[in-house]
Design a protein that fits this description.
Number of strands: 11
Oligomer: single chain
Shape: elongated
Largest sheet: 5 strands, antiparallel
Distance between the termini: 27 Å
Number of helices: 0
Strand content: over 45%
Order of helices and strands: EEEEEEEEEEE
């Protein structure tokens, strides 16, 4: 058993009215290890419902214009080989949400994209960099599944 570690940077563009809290939907299995951003008063995770939970980030003062939020997540991975889902991070209440995901893997793993729903592959990874590929998230909800196996020794 291993784990999938996720570093996410969410960039908000807040139009019309300021907001005092941000709500981010996460898969139930994801543990929130850290939340970073300027002016955070507190953050909490609401109890899961229907396989999802919501991270609530409360600001010290109303947020407007642009805001960056960093998340550190981790979830267990069953024995290999396995299909591992990249955590679907949902911007709750967003009228428009898109993004980009860079998938990296350790050298002892072979990782191949398998399930792409509302996701397109922008670039393939480069040999020796650990990068599997860069993917564009077209709209919510999206899914990106990866086939993960132990790498075979090459002689």
């Amino acid at each position: 058993t291993g784990s999938i570690s996720t570093q996410a940077e969410l960039m908000y563009r807040l139009l019309r009215a300021p907001v005092t809290e941000l709500r981010i939907g996460l898969p139930e299995a994801q543990e929130v290890l850290g939340v970073t951003g300027s002016g955070i008063r507190e953050w909490r995770v609401e109890p899961p419902a229907a396989g999802r939970k919501v991270l609530v980030v409360v600001a010290e003062k109303p947020l407007k214009d642009e805001y960056r939020l960093g998340l550190t997540l981790e979830a267990p991975v069953a024995n290999l080989p396995a299909e591992v889902m990249v955590p679907e991070i949902e911007i709750v209440g967003a009228s428009y949400a898109r993004g980009q995901v860079t998938v990296s893997a350790e050298g002892q793993l072979d990782v191949t994209p398998k399930t792409l729903n509302q996701v397109t592959r922008m670039t393939a990874g480069s040999e020796g960099t650990g990068v599997v590929g860069v993917f564009r998230l077209l709209r919510q909800p999206w899914k990106l599944g990866l086939d993960v196996t132990e790498a075979k020794a090459q002689v």
